[in-house]
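Comment thread on ticket #2218

A.B. wrote:
> Attaching the input chain for the structure job we discussed in standup.
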Amino acid sequence: MNGDVVGVRFQRGATKIYSYHSGPLVGQLKLGDHVVVETKEGHDIGKIVMLGPLRAGKKRDGLKSIVRRATPRDLVSRQWYRRREGEALVAARRLITEQRIPVKAIKAEFAYDGSRMTLHLLPHDDKQADLDFSLLVEQIGQQYKTRVVTRKIGPRDASQLQGGVGMCGGAEKCCVLAGVGQVSIDMAKQQNIAMNQPDAIGLCGRLRCCLRFEAPVYKEARADHPRLGTPVKTPQGPGEVVAVDVLAEVLTIALGNGEERVTIKMLLSELEKSDPDACPRCGKKAEANESV
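C.D. wrote:
> Ran it. Output below, let me know if you need it in another format.
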């Protein structure tokens, strides 16, 4: 049955979705419902954001079940503890400074019933693995009378938790990109973005996650254009491609040699007419016509 699986999201602003079995609430849940579920760290409240089927790559075996619906009392309790998170973060940062731990506390997050606090910590050095948080956990736990869990995160996770406004003017979307995978330098090169340009760097100080989502579009568009260095024929004479604007479909072509070398701009559609053999898109059209 597809209706017995639901997708649950936990953190505000996060986009990672966890699959759960509806358990005793099969057929009774709808989008937007708040439910209490079991996590590896204990019970927590999540929001239903997807109703079956099971997402690709996920296995039904071993799915945890929803415990119950969240009651109004649960939601009020969660809101009360959320109001204490800012205060707890300040306290954690003070203790980190006193203990000289080389990390930055990004967020303090309470479970809905206050039974647990999760400290999200960003190490100053990614390679530093042997950090001791035992005294920090003990002191902050005594202060708030709860169990404390520390979670080391990276710059992308920190940016997601803190939020902000991206270069596009919209809300920072590293989040969508939770679990985005590797963002490579080649993805920036596809867009002709140099590594020292602000366009390539997100709020986290790393390559923008958007580059990974945009990569398939640029890859497909580039396949229609001649590669750099390709010799082409133009109405002004022979030349070679020295730059490509794939979205505008504009080529920069160098003509001549030495001091007489000049560059011109040429639309891909113009190259299709002047030198169809050098235009990959022309080859695709010919193959399509032959198949018909």
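A.B. wrote:
> Thanks. Noting for the ticket: The chain has four domains: 5-70, 81-153, 157-222, 231-291.
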